[in-house]
Amino acid sequence: MAAPPRVAVIGAGAAGLATLKALADAGVPAVAFEATDTVGGLWVYGSPGSPAYRTLHLNTSKGRTQFADHPMPAHWPDYPDHTRVAGYLADYADRFGLREAVRLRHTVERVTRAAGGGWAVHATGPDGPVQLDVEAVVVVSGHNRAPRWPDPYPGAATAEQLHSHDYRGPEQLAGRRVLVVGGGNSAMDIAVDASYAAARTLLSLRRGVWVVPKYLLGRPSDTLNGALARRLPWRLRQRISQTMLTATVGPP
Length: 252
Known about the structure:
The protein folds into 3 domains: 7-139, 3-Layer(bba) Sandwich (FAD/NAD(P)-binding domain), CATH 3.50.50.60; 164-204, no CATH class; 215-248, no CATH class. By secondary structure, it is of the alpha/beta class. 27% of the residues lie in helices and 20% in strands. The chain has 6 helices and 11 strands. It has helices at residues 14-25, 62-65, 82-95, 185-197, 221-229, 234-248, and strands spanning 7-10, 30-34, 102-104, 107-113, 119-125, 128-134, 136-139, 177-181, 200-204, 215-216, 219-220.
């Protein structure tokens, strides 16, 4: 008979699965609560709550993203798309037998202190409310799961406002004048999509940023920085990286 879980993991995306694997390796019984009907978290395009858009790819190369004990296939592109990443996470769960520790379609409503110490996890599943008392709780539900809007801008805006969380593909921008606010990964991806589909695309940034291309000198750019990190001090690495970026894409 399996030992009762000592740890509750909230979320069965990449971090949740890695947490389950680490706990299993340490011999600690655990259970994960996943609100959707599959593992993979935010990478599952079309899953409830997922912000994945149709053109989404990794922004770090596969060699810098993969789990050490589960490499991505060598024939995959350097920057796999969301379909491959979601499948990769599903394969990871299957390879290490993690699915049996995941309670799908279980939404955690709250976590409270248990009367005898530890924590009481209150969830709602297909069969109704569930309570599980555990010694520890790991919250890995994803910081991108809920959209966050900035404080209201002064004045009135008549244009449609769309959060990146609700963006699904360039067809939403076709033939329109688009202003992308921000310089993060999603903003840059959507700005590129808009440059092909929209009538005009503008990018609004608070300050200048370094735009890092996916490839430098014919290699994934994050692998070059990793090679430098093993040999050079941080300030010198920064200076070299800035010089390379200025030469290839221009100053911030």
